[in-house]
Automatic annotation (TrEMBL), chain A:
TPR repeats (start-end): 337-370, 371-404, 405-438
Gene3D superfamilies noted in UniProt: Tetratricopeptide repeat domain
Classification via Pfam families: ANAPC8 (PF04049), TPR_11 (PF13414), TPR_8 (PF13181)
The keyword Repeat is annotated on this UniProt entry: yes
Gene giving rise to this polypeptide: LOC18603820
Organism in which the protein naturally occurs: Theobroma cacao
A GO biological-process term: cell division
Matches recorded under InterPro entries: APC8 (IPR007192), TPR-like_helical_dom_sf (IPR011990), TPR_rpt (IPR019734)
Keywords: Cell cycle, Cell division, Mitosis, Repeat, TPR repeat, Ubl conjugation pathway
Segments forming domain Cdc23: 7-276
GO cellular component: anaphase-promoting complex
Claim: Transmembrane is one of the keywords in the record: no
Protein name: Anaphase-promoting complex subunit 8
UniProt superkingdom: Eukaryota
PANTHER family per record: CELL DIVISION CYCLE 16,23,27 (PTHR12558), CELL DIVISION CYCLE PROTEIN 23 HOMOLOG (PTHR12558:SF10)
Automatic annotation (TrEMBL), chain B:
Domain Anaphase-promoting complex subunit: 320-419
One annotated Gene Ontology cellular component of this protein: anaphase-promoting complex
Annotated region described as Disordered, given as residue ranges: 242-261
The keyword Cell division appears for this protein: yes
Similarity section: Belongs to the APC5 family.
Keyword Cell cycle: yes
Biased amino acid composition, Basic and acidic residues: 242-251
Assigned keywords, A-Z: Cell cycle, Cell division, Mitosis, Ubl conjugation pathway
Organism field: Theobroma cacao
Pfam families in alphabetical order: ANAPC5
A biological-process GO annotation: cell division
Coiled-coil residue windows: none
Protein name: Anaphase-promoting complex subunit 5
Length: 577, 918
């Protein structure tokens, strides 16, 4: 409990400091976590706990591995953030500058602080300059679209900022916020190693600045890089790790971290959304839907992460829910890439692919590097049978993030559609390389090998085996494996996989022609092997079905009885000595 | 993406264009005299006009020249006027300080345009015709300016600021040169006596003052606090990738010894990348260069250039293709694969392949081309099976999309693959899609399938009028005819009477048909040259006449670049055609080599080396040198061959597995064998074997050669049974992979092995078999040498067979003496002498010259070759003859020579140890 209390105190101070420095998104994040901490019911009246919605029943429905105790998050060696404040006279200028800043008049704010030397003022001046440059950059990007897509616009303030901040840093006159800004500038300039170092320094001395953490996260593209970071222990590090793991596709690790964090921050919307995203990646759609429903009930005007929710609704084909969501986000904020993406998803579900493409395109106009929009647009083009456009869209996604296995998969599918299975294989290989645990990818690759043009059945079998090993929900792999082995004349293997497939179908209480096929094969197989008892079992099960197989089963049974009766003595001699 | 592909935006106004407008204004300032104010002569005026025309023609720029580059060009054009021009330009540019100035500027521009109907000049007044090139340019500029939004105008203003600042920052070095320049000008003045000197001097004084003012201005800028000025520099570097680009270009050109083409970036040369079209041309040129120079092309420097280009023009996908080519020729499999896929994902195969007629430009894209390229890539990396799979898919897809052109190319590629790489069987690989072609069934052998494929693809190429492909197909057909006996495809039915021989006439016919290509291109003229490469060349050449008028101080650099310019003169025959025609000569040389006509082979190789060396790829050129050097070695001995090899080594980079390296090993091996350095021979032979099966792929030809040499080394070491075993397994391999020409020489070797081991009777059938092979493949020289071996075999069977042997030798002599090398004729002479000597009816004293003459010839030739063993034999025989004749002095002489050779042979052991230790 004391840990909760200390967290709360730390966050409260941090929020004040962050918003005093106009680091609004970081302070927003901190405030969200602050409210997310579970209150002590003894101390607070129900009116105080208004925010703490009592929907835990839904929330916990799927939490099987309930965490009972708060996890050891390590000793936080930085207790309460105390920052030195500038003098009062300068404080007046600061107040003016901050007001300008709040009105988005960044250059004016910077100008007011031009002669101030306090760390806080310097930071705000630099930050304002940076934002002014960013704003101009965005504007120019639209103004200056070259003939060949050339847009070499840069933030023109970066150079001077880098020079100033590096001098400050050298003279040790810089506070953690300045370091954050320095790291940001370095990252923009492409000096990633130094940026990483500076950001680590920043978060080690002031861990409550989530913006710094997320910049650091975007620089950790591999596990090795992550491990090379020298981070001090603090509970904020857990948030960071969880988020990095998610980016690195270590979803289970990430999920564990988030669930641990939920012990303290029980009501954090942020954590809830992140858990939903992780579960989405693990394809646990039911749970994701519940989580998002809950989230929207508590935070109805949320747009962040709602594209993931829309993806879930899309896969579950919930037309009305998706349209409701689209309506809601468009009323909240029309010009967010997420909003456009959701609408695109809706139109896609409706089969209006042209409109869908239009909205994805709008999303991309708002954020050129919006990965999932490129991929989804590729899917739309595939639906519209415009394969070159699809290929192009997928390729852009892949060039933005080469680890995006969905886009690789899409590329493979597009080429397979065009009747180029051998060419497609390259892409499927890429896709399974980045996501080796997804059975669908393996199955797609196997089907590619199986196609009549290639007819490379041995390779197909290898792929199906991999698919069967990674939780193939649609149970295609086992059946195909059995069939392929039978075609290739490997009865033993075929029997093995038919049996497995049968067990699986029984467990899932599935019916269909596959069962009959499996039973039929097993019965004949065991009969040929002279293992009559097993064969009889399968034959009798076949009798439950109608159709020609039933007759065959009867025949088989009859044949076996005759065979058994002719050699009864042999059996006796062998088994009952 | 095909949907979102942006059209090249219309006509954007840039600082460079503003300066052009200023220059146009100077050129066409409305004045009343025929030569407007600053110009002193009409020719000067015209020169500027020409220059402006050239600049305006290349106005759809990706990269534009910077101000200082423009100024340095102006210096060459303007001659005496340059200072006035540049000062006017810079002052005019720097006077543009607010958007309103720009508005006024473009309003002024309107003034120098004539009215729409002012076709006639009034009062000698210079007015721009609005429909002239310059007038159009000006109108476009004005229109573009009027279309600009206010933000656009602001950008233009800031860009002009940067544009001027850059020129200033590079001013320091420029100033120095400029001062020199003025000195030069003063000197050169005396040459122009008809000029009004006073006027000129006055003008120069004015200029000097103006320049001083300008430099003051400059120095004012330079006196800024240091921090700020560095800041300015930094921003420039950052905001303007062009300058970086140039640096990179310069760097790379200093790396690339042979990559003259990178001079394009040389700022002093004054040639810059221009239009989209020209960039394409540049890339095409580079692609040719990569293919030509192979792995000697610099990888990283070019990669940097490409990366820059990609940054500047993200929608120009061909850059990816160049990256693919670059990594392909540097054997970087993964990067090649990645870039190939990326290129075709972006371009859908529609961009880039200019020679594909854009007829059925459907919305599906042309991914079959991607497959074709992928197949070729696998082929290049030595993955024949994968290549065949991919190409099979390419055949299917191009049939589906009815892309006949691609189909023809794919078939050609497949037949090339089949003929280059030994497949023992294609069953299971060449499957159903080939059924239309190989309707006869799959029972055909690889060779038969190859023949059918070749015929099919030739027919297809002819019907599609793909001339280059037709020529290439003729060449590969010739290659096929050279090494394959045509057999009837059907194994039943009425058989056409067919001789089981290759047909040299058909080879010649095919080669000649391939050669027709060049005449076709000669007639057609310029249709092929309208590509971007030409337009870059055009700009380069444009500079030349003007540059030569101005006596510029940097003569040296100009001289350097002149031959380069000469090379890239747009000839009416494109490089690829030249390459094809050249390779037809190469084929001829090889064909004659195989048929055994040394002089003709040499002549063809020489023609290639002299006429097509520029157009050929470096590996082909090296191959020709190899052939010439081999010729030298066989006919002139090793001394000259090694001297020639040295020259070739300097000319071509001796990288791993290059022709030159192989040649060196071959020469070393042969010399070692002749001199009796057997250990060295074995070592060299092993190295050759290693080269044959490298990581990338097994080279069948080289592999056969290596084991053939291995067998020969063993034979020389008198390890007969081992040699026979090696030769035997080699023969099996040759049989399996249908290497029939090689089989003939392996059989001959087997015959020799048995002869040397004393089993002449066993050797006879081998020699006969070899003879029959030689007959059916028309290998005349090899046949002569087989006949010689046969004669030797007969001779060793006993003295009663000398008649047969002698008649055999005499039959072969014309061929041996006409075309055979030193070793062969030496051997023939010795055998002849031996025949006479062992003939019991022959008496030396009656007719000594019959024996002595061939022996003398043989000893001369073998000494040149340093073939100790045979030379010793010749001298030995000579000594015996002299002994019989009673010429004791001469006998002693011959005996001494004999001893020398024997000693040399025995000492070879020691020498060799020395050699090996070194």
């Amino acid at each position: 409990m004391s840990s909760k209390e200390s967290c709360r105190n730390e966050l409260r101070t941090a929020i004040r400091q962050l918003s005093d420095r106009c680091l609004y998104s970081a302070s927003k994040w901190a405030a969200e976590q602050l409210v997310g901490i579970e209150q002590d019911p003894a101390k607070f009246t129900p009116s105080n706990t208004r925010f703490q919605r009592g929907s835990s029943s839904i929330r916990r429905r799927f939490r099987t591995n309930e965490i009972t105790s708060t996890p050891p998050t390590g000793v936080a060696y930085v207790s309460t953030p105390v920052m030195e404040e500038d003098e009062v006279i300068h404080g007046d200028f600061y107040l003016l500058a901050k007001s300008y800043f709040d009105c988005r008049e960044y250059r004016r704010a910077a100008h007011v602080l031009r002669d101030q030397t306090g760390k806080k003022s310097v930071f705000l001046r630099c930050y304002a300059l940076y934002l002014a440059g960013e704003k101009r950059k965005e504007e120019e990007m639209i103004e200056l679209e070259g003939p060949l897509g050339k847009s070499d616009t840069v933030n023109r303030e970066l150079v001077s900022l880098e020079r100033e901040l590096s001098t400050l840093c050298k003279n040790n006159m810089i506070d953690p916020f300045g370091l954050y800004l320095y790291g940001l500038v370095l990252k923009e300039k492409g000096n990633e190693n130094l940026a990483r170092k500076v950001l680590v320094e920043s978060v080690n001395s002031y861990p409550w600045n989530w913006s710094a953490w997320s910049e650091l996260q975007s620089l950790c593209t591999t596990v090795d890089l992550l491990n090379s970071l020298n981070l001090s222990n603090h509970w904020m590090k857990e948030f960071f790790l969880a988020s990095v793991y998610q980016e690195l596709r270590m979803h289970n690790e990430s999920l564990v971290k988030y669930e641990n964090l939920q012990g303290n921050f029980t009501f954090s919307n942020y954590i809830q959304a992140q858990i939903a995203k992780a579960r989405y990646s693990l394809r646990e759609f039911e749970q994701v839907e519940v989580i998002f429903e809950d989230l929207l009930r508590n935070d109805p005007y949320r747009v962040e992460d709602m594209d993931t929710y829309s993806n879930v609704l899309y896969t579950k084909e919930c037309f009305s829910a998706l349209s409701y969501l689209a309506h809601r986000v468009i009323m909240t904020d029309k010009y967010r890439p997420e909003s456009c993406c959701i609408i695109g998803n809706y139109y896609s579900l409706k089969g209006q692919h042209e409109k869908s493409v239009m909205y994805f395109r709008r999303a991309l106009k708002l954020n050129k590097n919006y990965l999932s929009a490129w991929t989804l647009m590729g899917h739309e083009y595939v639906e519209m049978k415009n394969t070159p456009a699809a290929v192009d869209a997928y390729r852009r996604a892949v060039d933005i993030n080469p680890r995006d296995y969905r886009a690789w998969y899409g590329l493979g599918q597009a080429y397979e559609m065009m009747g180029m299975p051998h060419y497609a294989l390259h892409y499927f290989r890429k896709s399974v390389f980045f996501q080796p645990i997804d059975s669908r990818l393996w199955i797609a690759m196997a089907q590619c090998y199986e196609s009549e043009q290639l007819h490379m059945l041995e390779e197909a079998i290898k792929c199906y085996k991999r698919a069967a090993n990674c939780n193939d929900t649609e149970a295609i792999a086992l059946h195909r494996l059995a069939k392929l082995h039978r075609e290739l004349g490997h009865p033993e293997e075929a029997a093995f996989y038919y049996k497995k497939d049968l067990e699986r179908m029984e467990a899932e209480e599935r019916e269909g022609p596959n069962i009959v096929e499996a039973l039929m094969f097993l019965a004949t197989h065991y009969k040929a092997q002279k293992r009559f008892e097993e064969a009889e079992v399968y034959c009798t099960r076949l009798l439950d079905y109608t159709g020609p197989e039933r007759e065959t089963a009867k025949n088989l049974l009859r044949g076996m009885r005759i065979a058994q009766s002719s050699f009864p003595s042999m059996d006796v001699e062998h088994f009952h000595p | 993406m095909a949907g979102a592909l942006k059209l090249p935006s219309a006509f954007a106004i840039t600082p460079h264009k503003v300066s052009l407008c200023i220059l146009v204004q100077i050129y066409a300032s409305p004045s009343q005299v025929s030569v407007p104010f600053p110009f002193s002569s009409v020719s000067q005026h015209n020169r500027l006009g020409l220059y402006l025309l050239a600049l305006t023609k290349s106005c759809d720029d990706i990269l534009e020249p910077k101000l200082d580059q423009l100024i340095s060009q102006l210096r060459e054009i303007g001659g005496l006027l340059d200072h006035w021009l540049t000062d006017h330009l810079t002052s005019r540019l720097s006077s543009l300080s607010s958007p309103d100035d720009l508005f006024n500027f473009f309003n002024d521009m309107r003034g120098i345009l004539g009215g729409p109907d002012s076709g006639v000049m009034e009062d000698d007044q210079v007015i721009l015709d609005p429909n002239s090139n310059l007038g159009m340019f000006l109108r476009r500029c004005i229109l573009a300016f009027n279309l600009l939004t206010f933000e656009g105008i602001c950008h233009l203003l800031t860009n002009i600021g940067i544009y001027c600042k850059e020129a200033i920052s590079s001013c320091s070095s420029y100033e120095l040169r400029r001062l020199d320049d003025s000195g030069n000008d003063l000197e050169s003045l005396s040459e122009y006596e008809n000029m009004d000197l006073n006027l000129v001097f006055k003008k120069i004084n004015e200029e000097m003052e103006a320049r001083k003012r300008a430099t003051e201005q400059v120095s004012f800028h330079l006196h800024l606090p240091k921090e700020l000025s560095t800041l300015v520099e930094d921003i420039e570097v950052f905001a303007d990738p062009k300058s970086e680009h140039n640096d990179k270009g310069r760097e790379s050109s200093s790396y690339a010894s042979s990559g003259d083409l990178l001079r394009d970036f040389d700022p002093n040369g004054g040639v810059f990348l221009r239009t989209n079209w020209q960039i394409q041309g540049y890339l095409t040129e580079q692609a040719d260069a990569i293919e030509k120079h192979g792995s000697s092309f610099t990888l990283n420097a070019f990669e940097l250039t490409l990366r820059q280009l990609q940054k500047l023009a993200p929608e120009l996908h061909r850059v990816h293709f160049l990256r693919y080519l670059n990594s392909l020729y540097h054997d970087d499999y993964f990067s090649a694969l990645e870039n190939l896929h990326r290129y075709f994902d972006y371009s859908a195969g529609i961009e880039g392949f200019d020679f594909v007629p854009p007829t059925g430009c459907n919305s599906f894209g042309r991914y079959e081309i991607a497959l074709l390229c992928l197949g070729m890539m696998h082929f290049h990396f030595g993955h024949p099976k994968q290549a065949l799979e991919v190409l099979t898919e390419a055949v299917r897809v191009s049939q589906q999309h009815s892309n006949d052109t691609c189909l023809a190319y794919t078939l050609a590629a497949i037949s090339n693959l089949l003929s280059e790489i030994g497949f023992s069987t294609t069953s299971g690989i060449l499957g159903s899609p080939f059924s239309p072609m190989t309707s006869v069934g799959t029972s055909l052998s690889v060779q038969q399938q190859l023949f059918v494929l070749l015929k099919g693809s030739l027919k297809r190429a002819e019907s599609l009028k793909l001339k280059q492909l037709v020529a290439a197909n003729h060449l590969s057909m010739a290659k096929f005819d050279l090494t394959h006996v045509q057999r009837p495809l059907l194994s039943f039915g009425p058989k056409a009477s067919m001789k089981l021989r290759t047909c040299p006439i058909s080879v010649c016919k095919e080669l000649r048909l391939g050669y027709h290509l060049i005449s076709e291109f000669c007639c057609e003229g310029s249709t092929m040259t309208t590509d971007g490469a030409f337009s870059t060349a055009w700009l380069k050449n444009l500079q030349k006449p003007m540059g030569s008028l101005v006596l510029s101080q940097d003569n040296s650099s100009r001289n350097n670049s002149n031959p380069f310019l000469f090379c890239t003169q747009p000839s009416s025959i494109p490089g690829s055609v030249l390459q094809l025609v050249g390779s037809s000569y190469l084929h001829r040389a090889t064909a004659w080599e195989i048929y055994g006509s040394a002089p003709l082979a040499r002549v063809n190789a020489l023609v290639y080396a002299t006429c097509f060396a520029d157009a050929s790829s470096s590996s082909d050129a090296a191959l020709v040198y190899v052939k010439l050097v081999q010729h030298l070695a066989v006919f002139k001995g090793y001394k000259e061959a090694f001297a020639a090899l040295k020259i070739a080594e300097e000319k071509f980079l001796c990288v791993s597995k290059s022709w030159i390296l192989i040649l060196k090993l071959q020469l070393l091996h042969e010399r070692a064998l002749h001199r009796g350095h057997l250990k060295l021979a074995q070592q060299v032979c092993d190295e050759l074997g290693v080269l044959a099966s490298s990581v990338t792929a097994v080279d069948m030809d080289l592999k056969t050669e290596a084991s053939l040499r291995h067998a020969r080394t063993l034979l020389a070491a008198k390890q007969f049974s081992q040699a026979a075993a090696v030769a035997h397994s080699l023969f099996c391999m040759c049989y399996k992979f249908n290497l029939q020409v090689e089989s003939a020489s392996v059989l001959l070797l087997l015959a020799e092995i048995h002869m040397k081991s004393g089993n002449a009777v066993v050797g006879l059938p081998y020699a006969l078999a070899s003879l029959s092979y030689c007959q059916s493949f028309n290998l005349d020289l090899l046949r002569a040498s087989a006949t010689l071996t046969l004669a030797e075999l007969w001779l060793s069977l006993g003295s009663n067979h000398t008649k047969t042997a002698l008649s055999l030798i005499h039959g072969a002599f014309p061929m041996i003496l006409g075309h055979g090398g030193l070793e062969l004729s030496g051997r023939a002479y010795i055998t002849e002498a031996k025949c006479y000597l062992s003939d019991p009816n022959f008496s030396v004293s009656d007719n000594p010259e019959v024996v002595l003459d061939p022996l003398r010839q043989a000893s001369d030739e073998l000494q040149a070759l340093e073939y100790h063993e045979l030379a010793a034999e010749a001298f030995y025989l000579m000594a015996i003859v002299f002994d019989k004749l009673g010429q004791l002095e001469k006998r002693e002489e011959a005996a001494a020579s004999f001893k020398n050779h024997i000693v040399a042979l025995e000492n070879s052991q020691n020498v060799e140890d020395l050699l090996l230790s070194v």
